[in-house]
Every structure is written in C-alpha cells, then in structure tokens.
Amino acid sequence: MAKPIEITSVEQFNEFLKSSRIVVADFYATWCGPCKQIAPFYEQLSNSLSRPKVATFVKVNTEAEGAKAVAAEYRVTHLPTFIVFRDGSVVERVKGANPKELQTIVETLSHNIEHATQGEGSGSGGSGGIAWRGADLPRGYIDISDTIDVRGLELLNADESHFSVRTLFNKSKPSALSKDKAESSEKDWVESDTDEQLLLYTPFNSAIKLHTIQITSLPPTDDEDDDDVPMRPRTLKLFTNRPHNLGFDEADDIDPTQTIEIGENDWNSNGTASLGLRFVRFQNITSLVIFVVDGDGDGEKVRIDRIRFIGESGEKREMGKLEKIGDQQGE
After folding, report:
1. What is the CATH number of the domain that holds 165?
2. Record's family (predicted)?
C-alpha cells in the first residue's frame, strides 16, 4: 500500500508495465481543476489497493519533461484521463474526472488484484474480471467488446448443436485451450451448418472507432475425415452501419467496407488472428456485419471460438480538456 508514483520518463513507465501485473495511470496537469478535484480520491485508491509487483498506481504529468512523452504515446487528449493496464496492455480508459466510473473500474480491478495475488494467470476468464484475449492489444487501443448490444446479435447458418451467438463474445478462455477441456460438456464455440459460410450481425450500444478484429478459431487436430473437421475462416467481408443483417445473396452482391484474407501465418499459438482494419473507414460504427465467405481447407464447415473488437468506445461527457481554457488557467 503506497501513494501514487510520479512518472519521470518513458523508461520508468515501461519498467512498471513489465514488473507489475496491473498498472493504473492518472494523466493530469497542474493547471487542470478537475484533475485536482479527483486527486484525493485517486490517492485513496492507491493507498488501499497498491501491491508490490501486483498493482501499481502512477501519476503522469502531461506537461513535465520526460513524462509528456508517455501521454503522447497513449494519445491522451483530455484531462484527467485514467488508463488501466494489465500485463502491459490497455484494458480500460476513463476520460474526465468521473469518480463513479473510476470506482466501477476499480471494483473490477480489486477482483483482479485478488486473483493476481493468488498467482492466477492473466488468461483466467469469468464474467467478473478482465476478458481473456488470444493476442496482445495494439498499443493505445482497448477491448471494446463490452459495447456490443447483445440483444441484437444475429448469426445465420450456425449449426444448432454448436449454437449460441453470445458464446463468440464470452470473456472466458476457450475450452479448447484448457488442460481440462475433456471434462467440459458445454460446447463454447460456433460452427457453420450447411456449408462454410456464416453471417454475423453485431450492433453496438454507441458509435465506436474500430481498429482491429481478433478472431480465435481452434478446430480439432485429431485424425478424422477431412470433411468432418471444421476449418478456420479464410476470407471475410465486413459491412458497416447496416440496419439489420444481410442475406447471403445480398452479401455476395454488395461492395464490402473491407475484405480480409487470413493467411496461415496470421494465426498465433492461441489460434488467434489479429486483423487490422482500414481505420479511416471504421470511425463512426454503429453496427458491423462479418461475412465468413470461405474456410482455409477442403472441409465443409467453419469454426469460430471467440471474437474481440479492439478500438475506441463512444465518447462520454468530458469534465476536463487538455487545452488551457476558462478559469482553469488561473488555478
């Protein structure tokens, strides 16, 4: 338990990201009124939750020499901004002096501190903690899968015996990667039905900026008839801001926002491919249709275990800005 640590260099900050499982960073400026208002609350959190090599609370003065490079690296444009890192990756970002929102993040953080203290790995899932991801996040972006309006999800051509569209966004580690996978009776993945094509309609609760899609696919490797073994997806077509799902004929005829070809080398050891998007085309997204056109192989079905959306969530009301405006200049 300790007070927040003042960051003086990029090297110091990066060292904390390497040595501490969880890092909470307060980006502030001395002239910023809202920063001063929330500072005691942040210090109280640090005093109660910090743990050596488990949870570290730091402060980053965006105008101090050495520290402002950290703010630039993580594209901090509003003050205050609080960024939560786990295992070196951004998992949460709070803009503005919003104690209620920060308190919610900290409650989740407390849960993860307990697990980290008990030595559990970063891949542990569960609805109460940080979501499992099969690949690192692009620097400066966060997992925004929680912005999905799950009530509006729709998946066409899914095998009913492997069907629950919400499974694709489950926060837990896929059972196929678990040591006890043989003991799991629940099928936590999705397969296509009559052929290898799938159509997934995903609405969002607010407009988002989408940077990367991470898809995890873990087909079995047992020696079975090739026609019975599902494939990983190969060709994807993405359609943005549609009011509803497309039909397969319609998806074939309409020009997509982007087409992605997934190569064999794109899949990592967790069976996850990180698919970078043409960011300028995905700036104000309210819904996304993912059309799996075909699979990588000669099989008849495609399998998907998890999907993660990486980018920036919709803007919230800001209580402080980086620019020196109004009565903040005199504070």
Report:
1. 2.60.120.470
2. Belongs to the thioredoxin family.
